[in-house]
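Morning!

As promised:
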Amino acid sequence: MTVLPYVVAAWLFLIGLYGIVTSRNLIHLVTCLAVTQSSTYLLLLAIGYQEDATAPIFGDIPMDAEVVDPVVQAMTLTDGVVSVTVSALLLALAVQTHKRAGTLDPNALRALRG
Amino acid sequence: MTELPALAVAVPLAGAAALVGGTLLKRRRLIDAVAVAVAAGVTVICALLLVESTRGPIVYWFGGWEPDNGLALGISFAIDPIGAGLALLAAGLATAALVFSWRYFDAIGGLYHVLLLVFLAGMVGFTLTGDLFNMFVFFELMGVSAFALTGYKVEESEPLQGALNFGVTNVIGAFLILTGLALLYGRTGVLNLAQLGAALQGTEADGLVVVAFVLLVAGFFIKSAMVPFHFWLADAYAVAPAPVCVLLSAVMSELGIYAIARVYWSVFEGALGGQAPGIRVVIVGIGVVTALIAAVMCFLQRRLKRILAFATMSHAGLFVVGVGLLTPAGLGGTAVYVVADALVKATLFLAIGILLHRYGSGDEYHLHGRGRELPWAGLLFVIGGLGLAGLPPLGTSLGKSLIQQEAALLGYSWMPAVFMVASAVTGAAVLRAAGRIFLGRGTRDDSVRTEDEDEETETSGGEGRTPLVMVVPAALFALLSFAPGLIPAFEHSTTEAAHRFQDRQAYQSAVLQGVSPPLPALVEQSSSPLKGLVSGVVSGVLAIGLALAALSWGRLPLALRRAASPLARVLSGLRNLHSGHIGDYVAWLTAGLAALGGMFALALR
């Protein structure tokens, strides 16, 4: 087991946050949020991974075969569904913001202050 | 009866699904009626669950996947009185919000009702579940529906920005929770809360467990809007429709705090319990800072919903103090306070809704003196303001005094002062607005704050009379907010529930073995009601005094006003931090996460 996936997951999380903080465009911002989320996919899959193990589908492999953890895969899938919902909603809000305010730049969207 | 726990979530989801089809009919009243009936049904289910759970925890395994030799395989709901009580609160408030919405919006599609029911399902599931990943899923479910409800008025720019700020910060919070639970899963290989607790108890808390704890706490702090994770809250609550604000403010903020209590006592206490004093200092400290900063911000606002948003945040800080004491009495006092405060905030948000419906404005300066024709609405505001201040016999005074007593026992002898300031200042902000709107006191427009804020117009306003379906829920909540203080059994049963909530061994054996040990006899603590009464009266008087001072600011001696001017500069700096810029908020969030990690690393050395 290598630490590489964990390092990459941490990197993705931070680079996503950096993108959100410095973003000048809401579409870009929502995409950065998806980058941050992909760090959780990687983390989950890395936790369940085993060297030389196969996919956990017991159709044509022996019952005592070494398999990777199916629970984290199910969690990743659920996480992915959540991500699609959130991205769709936030993008819809971004599109609507562009229609109303004429801009997608968070620096120009300061209706809510103090 | 045995399937009741599943129904508590299935009914609102099925109702929402049915209403999606129903929206095609374009029969508004039918949709209203079905939505109210579904929410009322969920309320009844939650009430039954609450009654049942007082006899012992209810454990429900989905699909009949019961634990095998004490090893949890399936997904469970594990219901205790505190979880069921919060679910009941959510369902009751959702019902009232739907009744209120009946006449509140002129043109509103059925999707509003669908979203509200999904939101309800998310909140109910979140409070009842006994599984950490399940908790994350319900957290996201209630999050997504709440973002959509906040930005429901897509014709305007403000709700959209509020919803985006709300959405992005809370989704990052969900990622933190997911990362934390993934680490815990990597260590233990389980996700059931009871099983996690069993796996961690007696182990040395190493770096991984502490990091997981920090990530989960930070994620839930974002939901409950603790400083410096709080920026989204005022933006979201200021633009969400008033009936939605009732749910956001009275339940959703509190659920983040509930979740911290839940994961601490069911999962982490076995590994981190030895370092409880260090954890207590960090959590109580954050609660105190939030309570005070938010109280100041609350007093600086002129838009009614923003006043209440910061009041919500300030009081959430006080709840975090109560939970962060990490004792049964602290948690019990918090439970009393949460219920009482929820009723007060619900009253106030519905009262604001009534003003918005009638005048199309929720700004205390625009409404100056216009409320004279609505003395009964003024009464609602006064009850609400005094409720926030915690004046006896309102229920909030009881909850506040219970937490203060426990804090004093643990050596925080200055805590009553914090509670007094936070509750008096938030109460004063509401009373000041009430004085200006309903009595026409104070200046018409404040030269200090001339920035012309665009008024939200979720309703067209200009309604001649206020429909009964809007008055009744508000008045009902105002009356109910006296109940927690006047029913002695309420305090007793919440204390008992809090004791049981913190019994990790009993929770584990109920969930994993299916055996509920008999309840230990409750040691009655000698409470001193007189002390609580005095501090409640003092903060009530303080709130009234502050409100009067603010209303007659222009007539105060010039020297006094001059002396306050350096303060004004500090305050405007504080206001400017709340920039409405999403990048700023996420930067604060990241810094806060690092600071929280550092504090816990020091506290748990």
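Chain A has one domain: 4-54+64-108.

Hope this helps with the figure draft.
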